[in-house]
Amino acid sequence: EIGPTMARVSDGGVSLRGSCAEVVPVMRLAAPAIANNALAMLLQLVDAAFVGRLGAVELAAAALGNAYFSMLWYFILGVSTALDTLASQAHGAGDSRSVRQWGWTAGIVLLAMCVPAGALLYMAEWVVVHLFRQRAETAR
């Protein structure tokens, strides 16, 4: 389905002018998310610059820690996005009971995922040395 600002042309396609008119509202909606992602990347860059001044081993340790944490975090974040779809569908259908049920289910599932993630973070030094095959001095 085409948006309200788009117009169909004679061959059944969508006009370019109508498509461009859709960009402005979408960009207004997306701008905070774009800024958030850009600033998060900038934060990692600044962190690396500061840690890099300490030494090569410290920079390697920070990079490994960041990669290890991100691996766990983005897996949990990906699972949490299921709530967006399921709760939105229930809300759109006017089913507030299902919205609450999906919220509780997501909370329980995410809590259950955070427990092993916390344990893996606690064991990070062992994981980095034995699974990532890095030196112990880098893992500390």
Automatic annotation (TrEMBL):
Transmembrane portions of the chain: 59-82, 102-124
Tell me which InterPro entries the record gives.
MATE_fam
Q: A GO molecular-function term, please?
A: antiporter activity
> Which Pfam family is an annotated match for this chain, by its short name?
MatE
Cellular compartments per GO CC: membrane
Keywords of this entry: Membrane, Transmembrane, Transmembrane helix
**What is stated as this protein's family in its record?**
Belongs to the multi antimicrobial extrusion (MATE) (TC 2.A.66.1) family.
Give the protein's recorded name.
Answer: Protein DETOXIFICATION
Q: Which organism is it from?
A: Calcidiscus leptoporus
